[in-house]
Specification:
The protein is built from two helices and twelve strands. The protein has helices at residues 2-19, 141-156; strands spanning 32-47, 62-76, 85-100, 118-123, 129-134, 170-181, 184-200, 203-213, 223-225, 230-238, 243-259, 262-280. A hairpin with a 4-residue loop joins strand 10 (230-238) and strand 11 (243-259). The longest helix has 18 residues, at 2-19. The relative contact order is 0.18.
Length: 281
């Protein structure tokens, strides 16, 4: 009887320790529906002594605001040892809004051609998606590559470490953010520090901070990032489904850049929100 009590207590301790330390790997599981909602809000205050005609608006400083709402449904089928897991991505809804100094631009955006379209492919054991077909007649190779890159980003954006994590542990990864001033692109590396704050039942809770790495070789020599650039966010990871089911962040930064047209001073705020609802097929 004492041995049985001791064994039960030992198993209980092991389970408790396992619940408080986890190995995370984001991936799509076979036989599930993933209903994804993504909202990206972007505000840029552009200040310059130059006049830059844009749809008839030359007022400076110029505040450009946009919001992009995306709704997708991903379906995964039964896994095949030879081919992998069949995966389809359905573009349920895409809504884009844009304002310049609080007014809608005179040129209205065209309806997004991807609404109600579906792409098909295979998701392999290594967590890589390969596109097979698109239910549109004319699709360029660049578009196919963009679709493949997007699907892979849904599980590959966060590189969780290959070790057990417990509340209080953290890890860092570099994330490039691409912004544009005039016709000149800027690629800024941000160091993102993820900290596991808690594990409750099925969910692992993280806080994270985003700090720019101006020492990155990709940072332009003729650009200056103002001190104080910083972002923060929260995410929730489902242990059961091996997937990030909630992610929300706010990032604010200012930079100066010398372009061919002249100097610009931009202040940017980006808000990202995503939510995933996962159900069995």
């Amino acid at each position: 009887m004492k041995k049985l009590i001791f064994l039960s207590f030992f198993i209980f301790i092991l389970k408790a320790e396992a619940q408080q330390s986890i190995i995370l790997k984001s991936k799509f599981l076979p036989g599930y529906n993933y209903d994804l909602s993504i909202i990206i809000k972007y505000t840029m205050k552009l200040d310059s002594t130059l006049n830059m005609p844009d749809e008839g608006d030359t007022e400076m400083p110029r505040i450009m605001a946009s919001e992009n709402d995306f709704d997708y449904t991903i379906k995964t089928g039964k896994i095949s040892k030879q081919k992998g897991t069949p995966l389809s991505l359905y573009y349920a809804n895409i809504v884009s809004k844009r304002l310049i100094n609080g007014k809608e631009p005179t040129v209205k955006p065209k309806p997004n051609i991807w609404i109600n379209q579906t792409v098909y492919g295979v998701y392999n054991d290594n967590g890589i998606f390969k596109l097979d077909s698109v239910n549109k007649k004319e699709v360029t190779e660049d578009t196919k590559n963009s679709i493949t890159k997007f699907v892979n980003s849904l599980t590959g954006k966060i590189n969780f470490p290959e070790r057990r994590l417990k509340p209080g542990d953290s890890f860092v990864q570099n994330t490039p953010i691409n912004v544009t001033a005039g016709s000149k692109p800027i690629l800024v590396e941000f160091k993102v520090n993820y900290k596991l704050t808690d594990i409750k039942e099925d969910i692992a809770y993280f806080n994270y901070d985003e700090i720019p790495d101006t020492a990155s070789p990709s940072f332009p020599k003729d650009s200056t990032l103002d001190p104080g650039a910083h972002g923060s966010g929260k995410l929730e990871y489902s242990i059961k489904y091996n997937y990030v089911t909630f992610n929300s962040s706010d990032l604010t930064y200012s930079y100066k850049i010398q372009t061919e047209a002249g100097p610009f001073h931009n202040t940017v705020k980006v808000s990202n929100y995503s939510r995933a609802k996962i159900t069995a097929e």
